[in-house]
Amino acid sequence: MTSTRNTPARERGDDALLDAARECVLAVGLRRTTLTDVARRAGVSRMTMYRRWPDMATLMADLMTREWSTLAFAAESDAVGETARERIVDGLVRGSRALRRHAMFRRVVELDPEVLLPYLVDRRGSVQDAILEHLVAAITEGQGDGSLRRQDPVLLARTAVLAVHGFVISASTMTGADGDITEDALDDELRLLLDRHLRP
What we know:
Elements lengths: L7 H4 L3 H14 L6 H8 L3 H7 L3 H23 L5 H18 L1 H9 L5 H5 L4 H20 L7 H17 L1 H4 L8 H16 L2
Helix pairs in contact: 2-3, 2-5, 3-4, 5-6, 5-9, 6-10, 6-12, 9-10, 10-12
C-alpha cells in the first residue's frame, strides 16, 4: 500500500472511475462487478476503462488501496496522545474501528470474504506495507522519547499489525448477540493490549 497521495490512480485523475467502481461494489459485491458495469456507472466507454485497467483484479487493487490507505492515514493523523506510544495506540485503535465500519470493507466481508484471505495467510498488500512503514518510523520516534520499549521497530510494528488484524476481521464474531460484549469493550481491550505490548 502506498499513501493515497502517491497512488497511480490519484496521479492520473481516475478518482471518478474509482468512485464508480466503489458504488458498483456496494451495489452488487466485488466478484459480480465488471469493467462494463463500472464504465456504465461512470458514463465512459469500456475502452476508457480497459486502457486504464486491463482487468478487474487491477481495478479492485487500486480501489482497495485508495479506500484503505485513505482511512488508515486519516486515523494516523487524528491520533491523540502525549507520547509517541499513546499516539500509535490511538491511531491503530481508531483505524481498526474505522475499517470495520467502512461500507465497502463490510460489503467485501459480507459477500466476497475470500478476497481478503491472501492478505491474511499468504502475502502482505501494499496498504499493509505502507502502514508498517509509518509504524516503524513512529516506533523509532517513541523509542527516542522513551515511551516505547527497546526492541526491533520492525518486529514491534509487525506484531502490532497482526494483533489488529483479528480485531478488524473477527470482531463481529466476538461481540455477543445479547450485548454482553460490545464493540467499545473490544476496542478498549485492543488499546490495553497494544499499550502493554509497546510500553517499556
